[in-house]
Amino acid sequence: MNQIKPMLLTTLKSYDRSQFVKDVTAGIIVAIIALPLSIALALASGVGPQAGIFTAIVAGFVISAFGGSSVQIAGPTAAFATIVAGIVAQDGLDGLVISTILASIFLILMGLCHFGSLIKFIPYTITTGFTSGIAVTIVIGQLKDFFGVTYPNGLKPIETMEKLNAFALGFSSFHVDALIVGGVSLAILIISPYIFKRIPGSLIAVVIGILMVKFLPLHVSTIGNLYTITNDLPSFHIPAVKFSMVKSSIPNAFTIAVLAAIESLLSCVVADGMINGKHRSDTELVAQGLGNIASALFGGIPATGAIARTAANIKNGGRTPVAGMVHSITLVIVLVVLMPFAGMIPMPTIAAILFVVAYNMCQWRTFVHMLKTAPKSDIIVLIVTFILTVVFDLVVAIEIGMVIACLLFIKRMSEETHVDSWVYVDDDTPEIDDHLARLPLAIRVYEITGPLFFGASDAIEHIVVKDFTKCLILRMRSVPALDSTALNALKDLVDTCEKKGITIVFSHVNEQPMKVMKKAGFIELVGKEHFCPNIAAALKHAEDCID
Fold first, then answer.
1. How far is CA 4 from CA 66, 314, 396, 399, 542, in A?
2. pLDDT at residue 434 above 50?
3. Helices (H), 113-175
4. Bridge partner list, 504
5. Torsion over CA: 25, 319, 67, 264 (sign)
6. Distance (Å, whole) CA 485 – CA 468
7. How much of the chain is helix, strand and coil, in % rounded to 5?
8. What stretches of 171-230 show up as alpha helix (H) in DSSP?
9. 456 vs 460: CA distance, rounded Å
10. Beta bridge partner(s), residue 427
């Protein structure tokens, strides 16, 4: 069980000057990487570019200071872009603040209740499906700016399919200049990692994009054309809270909390493998909650651990939370000094950056591999989650995906539970082979295999007793679990046998089923003497009962 203790307190015990220099260097480099990404992700989320910087500064600092990973770098990520854009479009910025704070409360409670390890129960097919779906929605949302398309008058699309339809209707207005800037930016993003190992491709693309628009006769929309850019520091803001808005925000808040938990803990696991370390998952969840509360109250958007930025931190020598805190402080300096120049960044360059972000997160190879190799039930969950994410939204995708996954799991488990009339000799009691061959006709033995739960309780109906049956043995050595629905079916079987004068004997009841039976008074109903530790004892007891 994880202790709720920030990793910063642990790492500072053995901190030295050499590591401080490495952390500062890594923090500055990560801040340079985070700058264009934070702006791009904020725009994709339907908010101003400064909101992305505020998020990286405030949430990044708090999560590093209180987090359960020594190297985690937090900030805005692509996973939230679609859902944030939908919240802002429907409920405004106050609605986003309320949803984020509610999600933060969920995250803190998850950490305090030690739910860090429970995130693994969300199926991989669902996370892959909605991650791929988010990538597609990001691409569709950026087609407008990449091609310089103007939506038809009166169209203000919110949902992904609405944006795709509006793009198709307005495609005749596409601008060659925007396509040139976007195409060059995209080419730089693809090629630059092979040439420049330490300079982020997104930064190079931004600089080249600005120079193209500034010195070439290219008429392209820039951030400054669409948003007001200032170098103001984050300011505290409390939203106007209404009960109706809080109530309607709960589904969105739950989705944000689940996404933040999944992505942050996944990033921690990846980081652990890179540094041979061990994170504290519950502490990380609490820190994510604290960081998102701070982000929401200071003009930011939802944040979580960012795998790419965390990996960059590790590769550049960052080994303590100080690197993440330096990353935030560096962004404050950048905000004050350079933020006005952000207005010169072309929108097609932002779109190109987000195309690459979408490609990196889409997991298309994993998606295709699962389509080829996964069981049909997993493929159904994968495709349904993917389609719902694209066609509707993430809230619907996760809710329906989880329901379908659970139903298919129940079906799969129920198929593993079966009841068979005893037709073989028990290999763990070979000394009674001859005796079993002479088993009296009045004794009937059934072997129950698999968990007895509500989805498999009808298996008990397969137990058939003949007119000449005087004793029924239920062998339960292969039943690991029992629930109240299946126990009720056993009670009905006991009642039926009692009316027919048949004695029921239970053999080898495991620990969990025995606890359920004791708690429900089932053992007293059957008779404690009719519970035997193994099949040999059960057979002997059955013979005594029919004599």
1. 10, 24, 32, 29, 55
2. no
3. 124-147, 160-170
4. 472
5. positive
6. 29
7. 70, 5, 25
8. 176-195, 201-215, 223-226
9. 8
10. none
How high is the pLDDT of residue 423?
55
3-class DSSP assignment, residue 81: helix
Q: Is the dihedral of CA 57, 59, 60, 62 positive or negative?
A: positive
- Average pLDDT of the chain, as a whole number: 89
Whether the pLDDT of residue 48 is over 70: the answer is: yes
pLDDT by residue (tens digit) across 119-139?
Answer: 767 888 888 898 899 889 989
Stretch 415-421: mean pLDDT: 86
Of 278, 285, 297, the closest CA to residue 257 belongs to 285
CA dihedral 286, 288, 292, 295 (to 10 degrees): 120
Is residue 425 very low, low, confident or very high in pLDDT (cuts 50, 70, 90)? very low
3-state secondary structure of 542: helix
| Contact indicator for 532, 541 with CB cutoff of 8 Å | yes
The pLDDT, as a whole number, for residue 431 is 52
**Collapsing DSSP states into helix, strand and coil, what is residue 506?**
strand
How is residue 268 annotated by DSSP?
A: H
- Asked if residues 22 and 318 have their Cβ atoms less than 8 Å apart, the reply is yes
Cα-based distances in Å from 42 to 37, 348, 512: 8, 15, 50
Mean pLDDT score, 351-360: 91
Cβ proximity of 182 and 349 under 8 Å: yes
Spatial separation of the C-alpha atoms in residues 120 and 143, rounded to whole Å: 35
What's the angle, vertex CA 328, arms to CA 325 and CA 332, rounded to 5? 140
> CA-to-CA distance for 401 and 388, rounded, in angstroms?
9
Q: Would you state the structure tokens that stand for residue 323, as one six-digit string? A: 């690197």
Residue 395 has pLDDT above 80, yes or no: no
Q: Is pLDDT at 467 greater than 70 in this prediction? A: yes
Q: How many residues does the chain have?
A: 547
- Residue from 33, 129, 124, 134 nearest 85 by CA: 134
Q: The tokens of 316 are what? A: 């550049």
**CA separation for the pair 147, 128 (Å, rounded):** 29
Radius of gyration of the chain (CA): 30
**Beta pairing, strands 471-478 & 503-507:** parallel
| Residue 508 Ramachandran class (φ > 0 left, ψ -120 to 50 alpha, else beta) | left
Q: In this structure, what DSSP letter does residue 222 have?
A: B
CB 292 within 8 A of CB 258: no
Measured in degrees and rounded to the nearest 5, phi and psi for residue 330 equal -60, -40
Banded model confidence at residue 458, pLDDT cuts 50, 70, 90: confident
CA dist 401 and 384 (Å) reads: 7
Nearest to 266 by CA among 127, 108, 458: 127
Q: How far apart are CA 343 and CA 349, in angstroms?
A: 12
Within 501-546, where are the H helices? 511-520, 522-526, 535-546
Residues ≥6 apart with Cβ < 8 Å to 182: 145, 146, 147, 346, 348, 349, 351, 352
Torsion, Cα 58 59 61 65, to 10 degrees, reads 140
Integer Cα distance of 50 and 209 in angstroms: 19
